[in-house]
Amino acid sequence: MGPCAATRPALRGAFGGSWGGVHRHPRLALSAFGPPLPLQAWDPLKAFTLERDVESDMLLANEAVGSYVQSYNVMLTDHAWTADWQGALETLQDMRALGVTPDTTSYFACICACRRGRAWENALDLLTDAWSKDLEPDIECYGHAIRACSKEQPGEAAKLLKELRSWGPAPAPRWARQLKQYGCGVVNSIDWQGMGTVPTSPARPCWLLPNQDQVAIRVAERQGDLRHAGWKVVWVDPEVVSTLCNKASMIEYAKSKGIEASTPRCYQSSEEAVYPCILKPAVGTFGKDTHVVRSAEEVEHLTRGGDLQPKWVLQELVAGRLEYSTTLLVLNGEVVDYVNTMYEYDGEEYVWPFVQEVRHEYVSVPHDHLDVMRVLLSEFSGICCLGYKLRSDGSICIFEVNPRIGGDLVFECPKNRARALFEKLDFMF
């Protein structure tokens, strides 16, 4: 998955995997179709005309069925936002009773509702049911099912995460409905991993913005090719993007900038580590192979006795229920705009997604924390997302930098703030 796009006067965007919705109630839409009228007599001309009409009606009916699914998915998404898992399951039953076949998005919304409503058993049943219907639940379906089980059934959550990790690279996220709510033409429809022929811009001028780390590196490396194909991209040094993506090199980079104290303390060996601490891959997302470790023996087991560098990072664990994710629009290190989301979880020592979210809130960033971010991003331009926690003394500890669009901006940020950020991007560059 790759980028997003935008044009004036309204921003246009392209991320991958989109879906839509019909602005009418699905039951009312279904009532418009009834049984075919009986044919009273056969006439060759009338038969030919009827045959053509039936063919057209079949095409229209197929389109209508897709519209019904989309309409129901809108309802299911509403259930998910309100944690109404019973309502979601009832709506799913209604779809089947009326002959409307749920799709992957339908199951995603239902599983999300179960996760928010703490109905882990139903979340697991839905995941199994989706596979039995020859659908392929994606990383987001698994993510919500894992989080639904993480507290009550950590063993089940571990099994699901192991299954998910066996798939290899994560597929493109589906953000179409949320992006459409921005009201500025940003969409998630470009499935380009940064290799091979670059896609042609659908409109001019049109922005291409990455939403995965590896694609962010490829976009930076192929800026010339992308501009030649009609895309607008932010100029940034590919080496800087690659450094920020890597959790080990990011900390070394911060050290060179004089802000080492604002990143987790790293341990060069399991013997010198202070436990509990965090063991994670230098490169990766979605909590892949990330663990809270409590002894040198556990580190040796997980790394199979191998060296920590360059694959692994063993670092300080900052305990606490609160975690922050800040999306910033940056121009040569200057923070032009930002949006910040605070998450509260139900544990002090955890690795997401093996933790239950209690709440999230849109909050500001203190000036001293912004100053640290400016230093870390002094050679960067574009949109990036920082993950951090606060130590017991209130100081910031940045544990991750993603130089790309993140899910927090899409799902948690107020839509008018997200729109303002994209409009500033379009105005500045």
From TrEMBL:
The protein's matches in SUPFAM superfamilies, at most eight in alphabetical order, are given as: Glutathione synthetase ATP-binding domain-like (SSF56059)
The question of whether Translocase is a record keyword is answered with no
Record keywords: ATP-binding, Nucleotide-binding, Repeat
UniProt-recorded Gene Ontology molecular function terms: ATP binding; metal ion binding
Q: Keyword ATP-binding on this protein?
A: yes
Q: Where is the signal peptide?
A: none
Q: Name one Pfam family in it.
A: ATP-grasp_3
Origin: domain of life: Eukaryota
| Residue ranges occupied by any ATP-grasp domain in the UniProt entry | 243-427
| Entries under Gene3D superfamilies matching the protein | ATP-grasp fold, B domain (3.30.470.20), Tetratricopeptide repeat domain (1.25.40.10)
Q: What is this protein called?
A: ATP-grasp domain-containing protein
* Organism, as annotated: Effrenium voratum
